[in-house]
Structure formats: structure tokens, C-alpha cells
Input
Amino acid sequence: MIFVEENGRTIPKEDKIFGINNRAKAMIKEKGKDKVVNGTIGALLDDDGELMILSSVSEVFKNLEPKDFAEYAPISGTLEFRKAIIKDAFGKYEPKSFVEAVATPGGTGAIRNTISNFTKLADKILVADWHWAPYKTIANELGRDIETFRLFNEARKFDLASFEFKVRELVNKQDKLVIILNTPAHNPTGYALTLEDWAGVKEIFKSLEGGKHVVLLADVAYIDFAGDEEESREFLKVLDEMSKNVLPVIAHSLSKAYTLYGLRCGAMICLAKSAAVAEEFKNACEYSSRGSWSNSPRAPQVMLSKIYGDDVLLGKVDEERKALRDMLLKRGKAFEEAALKCGLEMVPFNGGFFASIPCERAEAVCSKLEAEGIFLVPLAKGIRVSIASVSEDLCKILPERILAAMK
Ligand code: PLP
Output
């Protein structure tokens, strides 16, 4: 580093995933679209590789008044947005807890503010061994780090024993513990915690000695792409019924569900057991927002308020999204079936943007695939395939190609 202070971070020359994506784009330019499979990016693309956009949402954007985007939004978000995003997160379920929402620039902002406000410097944040890499980046940016538990046991189920072991280990060292669980349609595996998994998690927290405080961040960035929207939200009832020593926070995002990746909109939503805890949450998160990005963009907040203020429009958005979700789920099924047929092992998968293949030599296998024009993401424990960005036809042939490269 010449001028830069790394401060415990390791700063790479470029973001890994965007780097692979750039190489895929360069090969497309050189050899043509039909010679390249770009299974890297976490955005829903059509069969021709173009970004899919909800036209009903796009219409709302086009009809915005200048002051809908020019004016600052309140730091915690407009009142109408905060009401709408709570409805969007919970669906038909009505939480009994004290709920507060604070606007953030995407789910990323919610993750950042949760770590900054509910941990001490140098604390560890508990995440699964299969996880979205920016969790570590965000923790390191804030002078914290991550610790991992094993997501799956030998029976290919949620490894509750490993989760419990790590929770107990960390609460013995720290006053408080922030845990991030990304579900449903987990990135990178496509797993969704079952209600049984959740019941186990709840019991562990309840049994913590001395009522040690846990902040449980449910990262639901893909909640609308896991299957039926209401079924995917059933676990929120468990969050609502956690013991008093737990503060559940939902990291919500409009990036995927409203195809508004670039507008940067999301929220952090708490389910507090008392009004005092909810108020403290809102004050602290507002303060952190002021000290990082200040106000979040107003335009997407106005857009969500307009969608929730018009039942016909909301119905249209839901219907359009369902078509996207059904297409994605079909791709996932096709990939799963093809993997089963050729004997390629997958990490447990329920649905969503990604699937993963366990592999100890992921870097080498991905390099080999890249030479063949197939761009996937190597991870510490395997290979991530973005089902969201490849066609159903390609999903049917990719497993065989991956298996061949592994061999
Ligand atoms: N969480 C996970 C697991 C993700 O994959 C993403 C986006 O890729 C996010 C959160 C947050 O996305 P955004 O900040 O665009 O809302």
C-alpha cells in the first residue's frame, strides 16, 4: 500500500465476483454470446443474458415527480416508506413485537448498521461457513471479524450442533453476539432453514445463561424467490416469538424483489420486546446512517409507498414477480435434475438465485471451466453457480460440464 492504511483488512486489486464477470464480458466481446456461459452475477437475467426488469415497477419510476427524487428523504426514511416496507417484509403476518423500520441503501446498509451498533470493536460476528463474502468485508471495514459455524452436517441437514457450539463459545467471550442467517434462498447454496431448524435456534437462545444478548440478523434479500411468498415468510412468526434476550432484525432489500438493484433501497426492521428497545434501535441506526451515507435515496422509497398505496398496482407487481420467480424455480429444478442424473453432488438446495457444488479444488476447476467459456465463482468450500443468470437449457447441461472439469 502506498497511501492507503489497510487497518486489518486485506484489500484485493478487484472484487472477486465482479472480476470474474468482467472476464466473462470480455470473452463475450471477443468470441460472441453463444460461446460463453456467465454464471457469476446475482441478478436475474433472461435467457439472452439481459437484466429482467419488472415493467410495473419501471412505470412507477417513470411517473415520479422531480421532487420525489430531488428532495432529501428523512434519515430513517419517509413515514409512508417505513409503513410500506414493514408490510412488504411481513406479508399477511402481523407481528406482535414492537416493530421499527429504518431505511438503508439496500440490504447491505442494514447489515452494516447492525454490525456497527450491536457489537464492540474486535467482536466476532457469527455466520455460516457457506456465506456471502461481503459479510466479512463489512465486518472488517468496521474493525470486527467473522467466525463461522458449519451450515450442514453429515446428514445434509442444518448443523444445529455446530451452531450451538459456536454460539456458546462466542457468548462466553463477548457481552453480545450478532448472528447473520441468510434464508430463505440462501446465497450461495439455495438452502432455506426449516421451521424445525428455527425452533432449534430459538431454544438455544432461550437457554443462554445470564440472558446473554443476541442480535439475530435475518438477511432476507431473496425472500420473494424461494417459493410461495407466504410460506417463505412463515419463519417470521418464530422471530416474533424469540425470548427477551434476543433482538431479531430483518435486513430487507428492494434490489431483487423490485428489480431495483441500482437504486439502492432496503431497510432494517426490528422485532423488539419493548418500546424502549425499539426506540433505541431506531435512534442508534439513524445516527449510524448519518455518519455513513446520511440519507438513503428518496426515489425508491416514494415508489414503494405508491405501490403499497394502490392495491391494483401492488397486484400487478406481485403477478409480474411471480412469473420471474416461476422461471427461476424452473431453472433450479432443471439444474438439480441434471445434477442428479449425471451424479454431480450439490449442497442442499431449495431454490433461489444460486446453487453450490462442494469441491476442494474450486479455484482450479473454475479456471478449467473458464478456459471452456464457463464462468462460475470459486468459494472456500465449493463452486457457486448463478442459476439466476443462465437459461433453463444451460441449467440442463451445466452439471455434466462441471463434473467433467472436476474429474
Ligand atoms: N445479502 C445477500 C446474501 C446478498 O446476496 C445480497 C446481494 O447480493 C444482499 C444481502 C444485499 O443486496 P443489496 O445491498 O443490493 O440489497
The domain at 16-54+314-406 is CATH 3.90.1150.10 (Aspartate Aminotransferase, domain 1).
